[in-house]
Structures are given as C-alpha cells and as structure tokens.
Amino acid sequence: MFYYKTDGALAMFDLTRQDTFDKVVHYIQDFRQNKAADIPIILVGNASDLVHERVVSHEEATALAQKFDTLYIETSAANMSNVEEAFMTLVTAIYQKKIAEQPDIVVIGGSEWCVI
C-alpha cells in the first residue's frame, strides 16, 4: 500500500460480505504500523441499503471501530446515503489534527493559512 504523505484514510468494507470486513482489519493494522497511530481513519460500512443481504452487524462494526479508536459510519453508494458525510467527517478529523499540531496557525477567510 501507498502511505507517503497520508493525512487520513477511509477504511471501507461491504456490509454484505464478511470477507471484506475481515480484510479491513488487516488494512487498518498495516496502516497503523506503517504510518502513524494517530492518523485519522474512518471505518466505512458500505451497501447499507441492502438490509436483507447484510451479514456484518452494526454492533460488530462499531466494536471494531472502538478497538482501533476510529469513527464508524454506514453508507450506500447506490442511494448516496452518508457518502458525503463520510468524506466530510474524515476531512474534519484531519483538519482538527492539523490545528492541534500547529496551534499558532489560524484560518483566515475559510481557506488561507496564516502563521501568527
């Protein structure tokens, strides 16, 4: 995997396929070992619209997110449910981490960085 200059990650799995959930554990572990332990990761369970085909429970996914100290969100690419929210949650987490690391930086005009 490619981690150079990575500030965050969406770790996605398919709610209808147990094998993807099992693999996402290894991806998160690999990311944590090869990057930094404090890089924001959002665990994303996709295909939430396929309720009758679901094999990974909300509780199982939430437990995994807690184990890795990540946030968890369920999305559906088919109906666009929570897709934007997943990305915005990641961007917000990255932004908050950057501000915490550099408290002498403030945002001016919504997008400009200024050192004071």
Q: Gist?
A:
The protein has 116 residues and is an alpha/beta fold.
Question: Can you describe this structure?
Answer:
- The chain is of the alpha/beta class and 116 residues long.
- It has a single domain, classed as Rossmann fold (3-Layer(aba) Sandwich).
- The chain is 40% helix and 21% strand.
- The chain contains three helices and five strands.
- A three-stranded parallel sheet has the order 1-2-3, sandwiched between helices. A two-stranded antiparallel sheet has the order 4-5.
Number of structural domains: 1
Number of strands: 5
Q: Radius of gyration over alpha carbons?
A: 16 Å
The CATH architecture category equals: 3-Layer(aba) Sandwich
Major β-sheet strand ordering: 1-2-3
Structural class: alpha/beta
**Rounded average pLDDT:** 86
Remind me, CATH topology? Rossmann fold
Q: For the record, what CATH class applies?
A: Alpha Beta
**Would you identify the CATH H-level superfamily?**
P-loop containing nucleotide triphosphate hydrolases
Helix and strand succession?
EHEHEHEE
Bin the strand percentage.
15-25%
**Separation of the first and last Cα atoms:** 37 Å
What are its keywords?
40% helix, disordered C terminus, 116 residues, alpha/beta, 5 strands, globular, two-stranded antiparallel ribbon, three-stranded parallel beta sheet, Rossmann fold
